[in-house]
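Example 3.
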Amino acid sequence: NAGVMQNPRHLVRRRGQEARLRCSPMKGHSHVYWYRQLPEEGLKFMVYLQKENIIDESGMPKERFSAEFPKEGPSILRIQQVVRGDSAAYFCASSPEQRETEQYFGPGTRLTVT
Amino acid sequence: AQSVTQLGSHVSVSEGALVLLRCNYSSSVPPYLFWYVQYPNQGLQLLLKYTTGATLVKGINGFEAEFKKSETSFHLTKPSAHMSDAAEYFCAVSDAYKLSFGAGTTVTVRA
């Protein structure tokens, strides 16, 4: 069973560009979570999604950030007009139905804004 | 709100020595607690978890942790360190689905 897939693994964007990060959950998992890890810090929760629904986006910055998990295809975390402070590692995790307490993490996307 | 505090951002141990990583939690409800390990440039791997039941939890790679409600602690131990244990370790508490992580403890193992 393949694990959580994230792509790209590394992404470089200039200030003002858009970043699109993709996450394919483990097979059979319908719950997706996004976390951000800033340098020298632990992971911070951003958003929790189920298929076609945003359940909790309390950790998302109010502007420029959005997330979706469509009926078909991967979950997307989108950052518009990136700034240097967006440089971080972004991790996606997934969990199976009825077992929301155990999350399986992907390898992360490391975003660098120049 | 639930939170965890990891005591010590860096721990250095000799190969074969005891590894002890400290974690204290704050929670208004019975907590679900986790330890994850992160190797350089990789994602997080679950070492072990506590939900209910037995307070001594055994995980992968010889690690274990003990839930102590009276001390609000969930310390991680391994009796004998191996070079491959060099990594960053995160304690986390779950709020139904939202994981709140500590700042992490980096472990280095001396030969």
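Chain A touches chain B through 28 residues (CB under 8 Å). The first strand of chain A starts at residue 5 and ends at 7.
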